[in-house]
Design brief:
heterodimer, A: MetI-like fold, 72% helix, B: alpha+beta, Rossmann fold, OB fold (Dihydrolipoamide Acetyltransferase, E2P), six-stranded mixed beta sheet, five-stranded mixed β-barrel, 20 strands, ABC-type transporter activity (chain B), ABC_SmlMolc_Importer (chain B), nucleotide-binding (chain B), Transp-assoc_OB_typ2 (chain B)
Chain lengths: 298, 356
């Protein structure tokens, strides 16, 4: 009996295949190498580098970062930009997505909205520099209309970066929100309406609860983008003061002080702050309903 | 029973129309529905029956005509102001709410006190026999249970009118029969008025007090199930009522309401419909169960296949001209054999005209 069982024991190949491993699995190798070489290795190297400071003990870089207000202050500065911009983008994206979902020419609008993404932050920042500058169209129009007596300062300060982030971040936030919104079965709204729910009630009781988990993900992705702001903070901001964001601190450490170890430590801190916010949002998301947004089978 | 239908006397659709661009999905539908009736809107897909239902619910604005509930015009009201209960084809249960919350949603929107909501929800859940499932989410229920929740949610608000849009089409055959009986039981218990959209003639025949047969956006015939079953007014209504066989020929005799039709290679008898005249070209329309192999002068057909159906056999055959025929037989006939089919003269119908 035992011999019989041994005869019929499946070979290694069959056992591996039962776990989903076979020849096709090898196709993963190039992608795995790519990720390993271009993501995991640099990250691990940077992580290791941050604990090998030019001078002092293992934690010297982190000690320096958190004892120097000029350095640790960048966390608050960056959050003060990234959080309001992300929230405002969401607040704008939701009502616009509600309107757009009913439109027929969505593709045209989507194309227009994708343009700022493809142009990149630098071009948008340069554009803003001209458009919002003291001699730009915006201020000239305000002056011509007599709304202001001297040009409004909208560049080389907090608002310049704020607007630039808003413009480059909005299409992304909007498109994600729209896709989550269109994923909600329209029959649910109809059902709520026949049951007597007015538009505001339908939003509060049906759309919002079903949309929130998606909005949480949208928030995280948009926030991470905004938090790593660099070009616009330099170009349309005031990189010496109000918009001295954390990436500028890392840049200065690396290319002005030539202290790659310190720069790595700043980058790791930056990553941890992002991770903290994202983890908090996703943790809160875990408390929400996250099932399908359809009304039943069929 | 505390749940009861709100009072009204009649609902009138007055030349109700709906156009989608140049396409007229609903053409001048006029219909009066009395309180307590169970009406089935029956027709093939694309006939406008769902459009009619959505116009009634207010989910789709009509482009002409009006809807009146007694003396009150309601087609200009938003859906939330009409207060009709609607059961959707895919149930449209709120996936993030428990069964109890789903059922109580309509009451909560009306600002009903909590204690009363709890009491009425419990009662509605009892009516659809879902006791013990109150705290589950829709995703945890089977299709049949979801359908029950959808029905409870629609009736708990005590609507003057319950609208059902093919509510059984997503269920399997056994459950469909069960729920069909259930829907009629609930309708009878509550004394509600129900408009039920379906493409299934059997469902319409077994459920409805009156059937409205629709085709191409217009009403073709309105009548009680027995009336429509025995005497469909036009050949396309007949076809929808199961008269699947059509044979064209010339009328050679009409005697006490029975017409004899000379057809390709034989002759057939059927009830003469109004307007049929001697020597007319005409079309005979018959159900498979009213055609049998017989002797003498029937329609010659070549048998393609036979199916065993328990009490009898159903045969599929072809005429010399190639038209498909199905018939019923007490014993099997060999494939390829030629038999002569005769009709039950009191059940087959002869309509004037050919190429209908």
């Amino acid at each position: 009996m035992r011999a019989l069982a041994a005869d019929h024991a499946p070979g290694l190949r069959v056992r591996l295949a039962a776990h989903g491993l076979d020849g096709v699995t090898l196709l993963v190798v190039p992608a795995a190498l790519f990720v390993l070489g271009l993501f995991i290795y640099p990250f691990a190297y940077g992580f290791w580098l941050s604990f090998n400071p030019k001078a002092g003990g293992v934690l010297a870089n982190y000690g320096r970062f958190f004892s120097d207000a000029y350095l640790y202050g960048t966390i608050a500065t960056t959050l003060w930009l990234a959080l309001p911009v992300t929230l405002l983008n969401l607040a704008l994206a939701v009502p616009i997505a509600f309107r757009v979902r009913l439109m027929r020419r969505q593709r045209l609008l989507t194309t227009i909205l994708v343009i700022p993404i493809t142009l990149g932050t630098v071009l948008v920042a340069e554009g803003l520099l001209n458009y919002l500058g003291p001699q730009g169209w915006f201020n000239r129009t305000l002056l011509w209309l007599g709304l202001v007596s001297s040009p409004v300062r909208l560049i080389n300060n907090y608002w310049g970066v704020f607007l630039s982030l808003l413009i480059t971040g909005f299409p992304f936030t909007f498109l994600l929100t729209l896709s989550y919104l269109t994923g909600i079965d329209p029959a649910l709204e109809n059902a709520a309406a026949t049951l007597g729910a007015k538009p505001a009630q339908r939003f509060r009781h049906i759309f919002l609860p079903l949309l929130l988990p998606g909005l949480a993900i949208t928030f995280c992705l948009s926030f991470v983008q905004a938090f790593s702001v660099f070009p616009s903070a330099v170009l349309v901001g005031a990189p010496a003061g109000p918009t001295r964001v954390i990436s500028i601190a890392a840049y200065q450490a690396a290319f002005e002080e030539y202290d790659y170890s310190m720069a790595s430590a700043v980058a790791i801190v930056m990553g941890l702050v992002q991770l903290g916010i994202v983890a908090a949002v996703l943790g809160a998301r875990g408390l929400l309903y996250r099932g399908p947004a359809g009304g039943g089978k069929g | 029973m505390a749940i009861h239908a709100a009072d009204f006397n009649e609902l009138r659709l007055d030349r109700l129309s709906r156009a989608f661009g140049a396409v007229q999905a609903l053409k001048d539908v006029t219909l009066t529905i009395r309180r307590g009736e169970f009406i089935a809107l029956l027709g093939p897909s694309g006939c406008g029956k769902s459009t009619a239902l959505n116009c009634l619910a207010g989910l789709l604005p009509s482009t002409g005509g009006g809807i009146w509930l007694d003396e009150r015009r309601i087609d200009t009201l938003r859906p939330e102001r009409r207060g009709f209960g609607m059961v959707f084809q895919n149930y449209a249960l709120f996936p993030h709410m428990t069964v109890a919350k789903n059922v109580g949603f309509g009451l909560a929107m009306r600002g009903t006190p909590r204690a009363e909501i709890a009491r009425r929800v419990e009662e509605a859940i009892g009516l659809v026999q879902l006791n013990g499932q109150e705290h589950k989410l829709p995703g945890q229920l089977s299709g049949g249970q979801q359908q029950r929740v959808a029905i409870a949610r629609a009736i708990v608000i005590e609507p003057p009118l319950v609208l059902m849009d093919e509510p059984l089409s997503n269920l399997d055959a056994k459950l469909r029969l069960e729920m069909r009986a259930e829907i009629r039981r609930i309708h009878n218990t509550l004394g509600s008025t129900t408009i039920y959209v379906t493409h299934d003639q059997e469902e319409a025949l077994s459920l409805a007090d009156r059937i409205v047969v629709m085709r191409a956006g217009a009403v073709r015939q309105v009548g009680a199930p027995a009336e429509l079953y025995a005497a469909p007014g036009t050949i396309d209504v007949a076809e929808f009522m199961g008269f699947r066989n059509r044979v064209e020929g010339t009328v050679t005799a009409i005697e006490s309401g029975v017409a004899t039709l000379s057809v390709d290679g034989g002759s057939l008898k059927g009830k003469a419909t109004p307007g049929l005249k001697l020597t007319d070209r005409a079309t005979l329309s018959a159900r498979p169960e009213d055609m049998h192999p017989g002797d003498g002068a029937g329609l010659p057909v070549t048998v393609d296949s036979m199916e065993f159906r328990g009490r009898e056999f159903v045969g599929y055959a072809r005429t010399a001209a190639g038209a498909a025929m199905s018939f019923q037989a007490g014993s099997p006939v060999a494939t390829g054999e030629v038999v002569r089919l005769v009709t039950d003269a009191s059940r087959a119908l002869v309509f004037p005209g050919v190429g209908l």
